[in-house]
Structures are given as structure tokens and as C-alpha cells.
TrEMBL record:
The UniProt record lists the keyword Transmembrane: yes
Cross-referenced PANTHER family: MEMBRANE TRANSPORTER PROTEIN, TRANSMEMBRANE PROTEIN YFCA
Primary localization class, coarse: membrane
Protein's recorded name: Probable membrane transporter protein
Keywords assigned: Cell membrane, Membrane, Transmembrane, Transmembrane helix, Transport
Family: Belongs to the 4-toluene sulfonate uptake permease (TSUP) (TC 2.A.102) family.
Pfam families per UniProt: TauE (PF01925)
Taxonomic source organism: Roseomonas alba
Subcellular location per the Swiss-Prot or TrEMBL entry: Cell membrane
Topology of the protein relative to the lipid bilayer: Multi-pass membrane protein
Segments traversing the membrane: 52-70, 77-96, 102-120, 132-160, 172-192, 199-223, 229-249
Length: 252
């Protein structure tokens, strides 16, 4: 990523990704990265897209924090966040030193696996021990540092335990509030932020804010079943559209 002002094509691509990603995030409490990263990566590449989402999320986490504290499973969030915090630097090292195309294919694969697990109806019936919850957080930390995909592991965990939608959404929002702060610090340490990141974040910020509000409004209208089905559909569509397979059609 360079410090040049992004092109209009890049700005529009990132803004569209912010629109869809913000709807998913506002509606479900997770899914911003699952939706935003594949779509934005098709426009500007993953090394540019990931830091932009980190900047966007720094604002959205503060907006969702009050409601998250009231309904989240705070004990599990605390343990999970500790595991994630320790693992984020590993993920940021992967992002800083990986091949962009290979990383995009890897991200697409992870998203598709997540959709498969979430949509399978699988439920974890065992006890949520401290080591197990911390391990889920560690997986999320690595994925977050690599591609802001830290929501995959905890979302799979809480949805897999058949938690109510309001609890899943609140727990994810609280988890992200902690994790985003660590991710931003880690990205800054790795030198992953550039002026182009700031320009893209400023350009996409208003769209992201409006779509967060829209997603939050839709959450109040959705049933438990709709809550899951809509999230899965958004994530699956973004994974397919973000594949490097389409680069030849877009001239990248």
C-alpha cells in the first residue's frame, strides 16, 4: 500500500463494501470483516482493505458498547478477549509478510468454511471451560490480526451454543470493542497504516455509519431464524464476489 490518494474506483469499491459490511455488522453484531474484506480486497487488495476496516471499526465499537455491556456474556467475553489479545500480533505478522493473492484465496476459504459451519445447524453441547474459550479467542486473534476476521471463531462458538440473538449480538460487540483496540495498536506497530488508509476510511465512513444504523434497525424486526439466515446469506455472497477468480473481469 502506498501513500497516494486512492482513485475514484478504489473509493467506490470500498464504499460499497462498507455499505454491505455495515448492514451485516449493525444487524448481527458480527460479519463486517466477513463481508467487507472480500469485497474491498477486490478493489484495493487485502493489505489496504484490512487497515481501513480497523479504522472504521474503532468508531462503531464505541457506538455499540453501552448496549453490549447490558446483554453480553461478560465472563466468556473476558476470557476470549484475553486469548485474542495475545494472538493478534501473530496475525499482523502474517498480514505484513504474505502474498496478497494467496492471502485473498485464504481469506475466501476461511469465510466459506465459516458459512458452512454456521449454516450446518451444528451446536456445541459441552461445557465452556476457560482453556477452551481462551483457545477460541486465540484463533479469533490470529484471524483478526491477519484480516480483521476475528469474529469468525467467537460467532461460530456462540451461535453453535444456540445462544439467543440478542446475546450473540451483544457479546460480539463487546468482544470487538476490546479486540479492535489491540488490532489498531498491532497494525500501527507493524507500519500497516498509511495515508491512503485514512483517505479510504474517511470516504467510506459516512456510508458505514448509515449502514450500521440501518442494520441495527433491521435487527429489531427480525426473528431468531431470520437473524441467522440473513447473516449467512450476506457472508456467502461476499465470499463468492471477493474471489480473485473475478479479477480478469475487472482488469486487476
Amino acid at each position: 500500500m502506498t501513500d497516494q490518494i486512492p482513485s475514484w474506483g478504489a473509493i467506490l469499491g470500498v464504499a460499497f463494501a462498507a455499505l454491505v459490511g455495515g448492514l451485516s455488522r449493525g444487524f448481527s453484531g458480527f460479519g463486517a470483516a466477513l463481508v467487507f474484506i472480500p469485497l474491498a480486497s477486490a478493489a484495493v487488495g487485502p493489505r489496504a482493505a484490512v487497515p481501513v476496516l480497523a479504522l472504521l471499526e474503532s468508531v462503531s465499537c464505541l457506538a455499540f458498547l453501552p448496549g453490549a455491556w447490558a446483554h453480553a456474556v461478560r465472563r466468556e467475553v473476558t476470557v476470549m478477549s484475553c486469548g485474542a489479545v495475545l494472538a493478534v500480533p501473530v496475525g499482523s505478522l502474517i498480514l505484513a509478510h504474505s502474498d496478497p493473492v494467496a492471502l485473498r484465496w485464504g481469506l475466501t476459504g476461511l469465510v466459506l468454511v465459516a458459512v458452512g459451519v454456521l449454516g450446518s445447524g451444528w451446536r456445541y453441547r459441552g461445557k465452556g471451560s476457560v482453556p477452551l474459550v481462551a483457545a477460541v479467542g486465540a484463533v479469533g486473534g490470529v484471524m483478526s490480526g491477519t484480516a480483521m476476521l476475528g469474529g469468525v471463531a467467537p460467532a461460530t462458538w456462540w451461535l453453535g451454543r444456540n445462544a439467543p440473538a440478542v446475546v450473540v449480538r451483544a457479546s460480539m460487540n463487546l468482544y470487538f470493542a476490546v479486540l479492535t483496540a489491540v488490532v489498531i495498536a498491532s497494525f500501527a506497530w507493524q507500519g500497516l497504516f498509511a495515508w491512503s488508509s485514512v483517505w479510504l476510511a474517511l470516504a467510506a465512513g459516512p456510508v458505514y455509519g448509515v449502514s450500521l444504523w440501518g442494520g441495527s434497525a433491521l435487527f429489531g424486526l427480525a426473528s431468531e431464524t431470520a437473524f441467522r439466515r440473513i447473516g449467512y446469506a450476506l457472508i456467502l455472497a461476499a465470499a463468492v464476489l471477493g474471489m480473485p477468480l473475478w479479477d480478469a473481469l475487472t482488469g486487476r
